[in-house]
Automatic annotation (TrEMBL):
This is Nudix hydrolase domain-containing protein. Keywords: Hydrolase, Magnesium. Signal peptide: none annotated. InterPro entries: NUDIX_hydrolase-like_dom_sf (IPR015797), NUDIX_hydrolase_CS (IPR020084), NUDIX_hydrolase_dom (IPR000086). The keyword Iron does not apply. Residues 20-165 form the Nudix hydrolase domain. It comes from Pedococcus aerophilus. Its cofactor is Mg(2+).
């Protein structure tokens, strides 16, 4: 019996999961002091490697980037906003990363939202998001990086400045 289980395990391990190609809308949520609301999470296949990332996620079929950004803010923070609350987009990029044994190829667009600090509470996390999230918190990106923690995107500090500048010109 043990040999059979070991054989099944090896067969499962040898199967390569297909790559995922997706578009994502991300939101750099900034408070008046320049702190950013971020999610600290991890890849369930590598739980020892925690990292911080911005609010946001995949654009659903039939949805535009702005609509996805508004939806993701609600799902991940519980905050109800409109497209008019968002600034930008400020940045577009492409990248690839590993998550749950698959390679994700992601094209993403970044919006901004300058808001007073609030207590974020997910309103629509999927099971995987719940299992791979440590916490949601307001962080100082530079101080968090200086403490040795991984913070994404690498250009976050510049994006925070872009959000603050755009908010100042909007007022």
């Amino acid at each position: 019996m043990t040999g059979s289980r070991t054989g099944e395990s090896r067969a499962t391990a040898d199967v390569t999961a297909p790559d995922v190609h997706r578009r994502a809308a991300r939101v750099v949520v900034v408070d008046p002091d320049g702190h950013v609301l971020m999610i600290q999470g991890f890849d369930p296949h590598r739980p020892e490697d925690a990292y911080w990332y911005t609010i946001g996620g995949g654009v659903e079929p039939g949805e535009d980037d702005l609509g996805a950004a508004v939806r993701e803010v609600w799902e991940e923070t519980g905050a109800t906003i409109t497209a008019e609350d968002l600034l930008g987009p400020f940045h577009h990029d492409r990248g690839s990363f590993s998550f749950e044994g698959r390679t994700i190829h992601q094209e993403q667009v970044f919006y901004g939202w300058l808001t007073e600090r609030f207590e974020a509470e997910p309103a629509g996390f999927e099971d995987l998001e719940s299992r791979s999230t440590i916490r949601i918190d307001w962080i100082d990106p530079a101080a968090t990086r200086a403490a040795g923690e991984a913070v994404y995107p690498a250009s976050l500090e510049r994006l925070v400045e872009d959000v603050q500048d755009a908010a100042a010109t909007r007022s």
